């Protein structure tokens, strides 16, 4: 089972007392911790209405969108990793492995996204809920249930999927959902997996045909847009020759067959 969790307004809900405790646990000197907390807690806001300034709002929690905020938030989010590492070591949330002999993975953190991996087992899923509740109470975070989802193996019974999804309070993942430009659920057929990507590129090309563009303008659109759309997918997954050939064919068709200088770069 894979849980994709979305944290609602994660930066704005960080408890300052918890942040101070986290900085201390990471071994930062007291003077440095005091300085950081002074920077965080000394922010105030004013309202400007009809050129007049009103009020002064002193915040009680949250991290501002300054260059330091992402690093402080990552330190706070490390506490969630610690909870999962402890649960994995004790066997309560063993995680999953991609193949025999591979290490078990219980969670992944990428940017603001959190993914949790767990065997389909009621007691273990309940412990995952306990870990998330502990994290929410400590950091005052709130999980956006409408944007969070669960993915199960195709071998998991539908009734069990629904039961665990109701326990977690989240919905089942739609197989057509997009994550980072790719389908959230991979298919065995690479061509079927890249169908959404191909459709996106083809729709863009069809829209450009209606515009009067010079050969130089077409070349720039190809290099900046068409070749940029699949770049992330190509860095993660291997392209089939058929998909690669389709992309090149579309580019040459759109460019008016201006020569071999316009070529899809893999």
TrEMBL record:
It holds the Pfam family RVT_1. Residues 3-171 form the Reverse transcriptase domain. Keywords: Membrane, Transmembrane, Transmembrane helix. The chain crosses the membrane at residues 35-59. It comes from the Eukaryota. This is Reverse transcriptase domain-containing protein.
